[in-house]
Amino acid sequence: MTIKVAVAGASGYAGGEILRLLCGHPRTLAGELEIGALTAGSNAGTRLGDLHRNLFPLADRILEETTPEVLAGHDVVFLGLPHGQSAAIADALPPSTLIVDCGADFRLEDADEWTTYYGGEHAGTWPYGMPELPGNREIVAGATRIAVPGCYPTVSILTLLPALLAGLVEPTVTIVAMSGTSGAGRSPKVNLLAAEVLGSVRAYGVGGTHRHTPEITQALSRAADMPVAVSFTPVLVPTTRGILATCTARTSASIDEFRVAYEKAYDGEAFVNLLPQGEFPETGSVLGTNMVSIGLSVDERSGTFVAIGAVDNLTKGTGGAAVQSMNLALGWGEGEGLPIVGVAP
Amino acid sequence: MTIKVAVAGASGYAGGEILRLLCGHPRTLAGELEIGALTAGSNAGTRLGDLHRNLFPLADRILEETTPEVLAGHDVVFLGLPHGQSAAIADALPPSTLIVDCGADFRLEDADEWTTYYGGEHAGTWPYGMPELPGNREIVAGATRIAVPGCYPTVSILTLLPALLAGLVEPTVTIVAMSGTSGAGRSPKVNLLAAEVLGSVRAYGVGGTHRHTPEITQALSRAADMPVAVSFTPVLVPTTRGILATCTARTSASIDEFRVAYEKAYDGEAFVNLLPQGEFPETGSVLGTNMVSIGLSVDERSGTFVAIGAVDNLTKGTGGAAVQSMNLALGWGEGEGLPIVGVAP
Amino acid sequence: MTIKVAVAGASGYAGGEILRLLCGHPRTLAGELEIGALTAGSNAGTRLGDLHRNLFPLADRILEETTPEVLAGHDVVFLGLPHGQSAAIADALPPSTLIVDCGADFRLEDADEWTTYYGGEHAGTWPYGMPELPGNREIVAGATRIAVPGCYPTVSILTLLPALLAGLVEPTVTIVAMSGTSGAGRSPKVNLLAAEVLGSVRAYGVGGTHRHTPEITQALSRAADMPVAVSFTPVLVPTTRGILATCTARTSASIDEFRVAYEKAYDGEAFVNLLPQGEFPETGSVLGTNMVSIGLSVDERSGTFVAIGAVDNLTKGTGGAAVQSMNLALGWGEGEGLPIVGVAP
Amino acid sequence: MTIKVAVAGASGYAGGEILRLLCGHPRTLAGELEIGALTAGSNAGTRLGDLHRNLFPLADRILEETTPEVLAGHDVVFLGLPHGQSAAIADALPPSTLIVDCGADFRLEDADEWTTYYGGEHAGTWPYGMPELPGNREIVAGATRIAVPGCYPTVSILTLLPALLAGLVEPTVTIVAMSGTSGAGRSPKVNLLAAEVLGSVRAYGVGGTHRHTPEITQALSRAADMPVAVSFTPVLVPTTRGILATCTARTSASIDEFRVAYEKAYDGEAFVNLLPQGEFPETGSVLGTNMVSIGLSVDERSGTFVAIGAVDNLTKGTGGAAVQSMNLALGWGEGEGLPIVGVAP
Questions:
Q1: Which of B52, B100, B245, C192 has its CA 20 to 30 A from that of D272?
Q2: Was domain C3-148+318-330 assigned CATH 3.40.50.720?
């Protein structure tokens, strides 16, 4: 049987990354996965090769309009749409269609938080496509609707999770996360122009205002089984891809206790790399991969635990997690088609 | 009278920046400041234009060896040497010679801290060349020995100082500071190669091990008049210059209280720019200047104060502070020759 | 007497660079130059500090609309407008007002070339603001209307000029010029987003279609006193500023003949730096300066002359040349306020 | 049967890239290819994960010394050594061992050219691992000694080859090629430090002195069946990977003639992408792939043909070509394990 896959929002970076991964997926090469409709909004009618010049095998595909009719008849539909547009599409497709949403619409459980951070009405909550969370792998495997985590939440949660699960830190965490600019999407804005970004480092969404804050808080509070206060500061750096999350919390535990907790939490996880003691990750080493690479430290003088996590925001942070969730939901090998060796240097 | 200035360690980035500023200094243009001996270690004998290709007016100067004999006969001697080498030079020069040391040797007051972080014996403590600290301007103005602050400390201290002076935050601060790679100096190392740095973001010196940690702690503890616990994490980003410091501390004060404290602390300071509420700095806007640009925020949900500061690590972070100190000590206008408009974009 | 200066198009990169230079101009510091009206199109009404975050001294200025009324009453008006808009403004201002146009409208002498490359009707020809051209310094000094050269033409012409003046190369030249993205202006376009530009190098305007081609051809043909065929290929590289022009032409002359010709042509030119034999420039060394730095080579095996020139496209390539022209036209020192030491590294 | 593969010089960028590709090679995943000894010079004894932090699956491998004894017993040996060291290793291994040399030692046919450009004595000539050259695929397929082409030659030759094969241009070509800094290797040098490279563009090896010049000349002269004069200028740009070659030659042919020639020459070539007329490549779109992407143009005003080619210097430019050659020589599918979708943006 051939699984037919559509990508809605194929002109954006999330859509492009999903297509990059699907092109190299072993099921595609074996003829078991077929890349079907590719849709867009204002870019409908455009040749894909004019938008994603790296997708050589799909260069002559023409983007169609994002409508339920075009997306019907596919086994899997990936959504890479601006927030607020996923529900209408999902409602119009059969419940049996596997829908993997890279947008924010179905990530939050608390309707008030949704309204506070995104405005408008909450569309609902779908299974959260982060199989590394306790108990979550089975939920994703059985789902036909999956909400792919945000890029900052992916690295922030996975870098802090075991510390909170094991109760080794105070429930107040400070996360400063530096991201390449592909995370800001492909809409042309002056402050994302290369001339503004190159040679400069800029904080934005300071003071808890970034929309990924409640998503991080939700997952960490569940892990800690108590409310966790999250100070989250995103920073834009001059790279295309990659997020480095610097996570700090007060602790009286030893580094050995942390290592035990992390090794236990991530035992057998194919996409989490725990670095040897004293080493810390860089985003360059995970470029193009579905990996999260983590380094741990305890600063006894200031009484703090410092964990550093690195991720490719477009792969594990978006498109890779989407494909990982698809693999699980289709009963395929979870890691199929997901690179684990970075394109470095 | 003409002031004759020497630069020891002229082949490095600190020395080069001092020369850049001296070339454009109005006293140089007026013939009142003369650039005398330029010295180096292994680069002695080299044409300056082969090392600092931006210093067109000095391109044909030949570097001499760094010895007391070569440096003698100058009114001002800037030192840009590896740590541990400044004391011997200083001891061999007359007490009346103004020595401005860009190295770390004379910054710390606590000899044990020196030994812990740098090894070997503490050389002593010189007036700290940060005129913006309470009471410090007068001390610097009257000194003939000045220790230029480190680059990370400059931006970290100035970004947090008023909050601690006013007692508005708990005495536990988290600083995550992203730096361009010129801060790591000019020695060739594999991990500083462009191929390793470009497209990547990397934390280093994690867990309180970076040598600038005790320097930050010293200044902030004095401001708070109590011990301040500092969690400091430096991050290397792919820019040549610039540090962005993200500083977080728990607070119950309001943003208005912080603004009052910062406006009071920096009233009349020519090199501190307090951004309007809701705006935050980027390193690009201070490129080549002696400015520190600061934005403030209170995140009420997590109970934290977040201040962001940006500085050019080579200008205000090193060479600019050195010239600022020289200006003060010579009785010239403090801001002479110090750019306040960034080279942007 | 105080000279009052307006900048029309102050929100763009050319306008911002002129303001950067005017802020540091000695006549401004002495109170002899006053920065008057700053105007914009869609950005009228905006605080300058929100657009050019590096212009700290002017941060609270509010942009006005670009109209003749607002610009009236100034001694000098700089124009940094999209092409086609300068003539109407110029016509509405008195002939005695010094107008320095950073746009393309008045650079070309041949009306057909204008129509071919820009479309529409030719507005006329103004004195060309490149004082380094033979006989041009006097023309600029006596003008009240000046057309600032394009950025690619500036570096291409100055890098090749002496070779053509001396008749040392065949009149067919190949120029490949790599530019930072500030040269493409500040309008938000997808292909100028940092995520598209970083880590990538891209040719554009290939095959003689770039609008700067006829401007280069015009100047080189005049220098050679015969038609010169110019193959010009611009390349976009991931830097904010800087153009490196690689210029090649067939020759049977020796490197010594070229050096004699270049030294003679640029004798006494403050803004042209001829590197020692065997050295070649990089854009980083001229960052923020009004310099053109040039290296020469003869490849005897292939029978070619290769000259490499570097320039900051926003300074000598636009705003610096504009201020240089203003200085000349006002009878001030030609180099006043124009940096000659690069911000490097 | 399992093919056992060794990599000598595994600590460098070429060795690292070969390992990246071998990790994802389908024969590795199927257990038919085994990664055996990994060797180095001064890095012998080091954990691979400390040198290539992207190679997660091989992180705990320890580098051995590069000796014939360590390399014996492997079916395939990749060499990524400084030039001059390959012959001794090759002589000590059995003739049946497939040796794929990423160095320059066996690329040139003319011993005098070798001595002129590299010094010392010529070691010999091996089959040239560029299957896209006429008649070369069969030679590589039958070889046990293969010389991998240089990175600049790969893109230069493939971008110009059909024009010269078809006799459409004069036999004098100008190539200006911009490269990321990984092409300069991993030895720490001041001029390759990020602080020197970022924000700057620099020509080097100007005037026909770069060692890749005779290699380009050799291939193009053979294609043209007459001596071709090559003016080659390499330029260093601030990216990690990627070369963009701008190739110019005088012509009186039409663009249609060129398109016919290129389509014929590259018909069926999996790794050559000919862009639609009017489009030109960027290095970002081929990042991490074995592709060469080419755009064509004729500038009728200047009478020149301009072809632009893009390649990833470490993949198709080194490690990818090495694996492609191995695939051919082992009778495997030529494209196995070689990415054709770029990691973009």
A1: C192
A2: yes
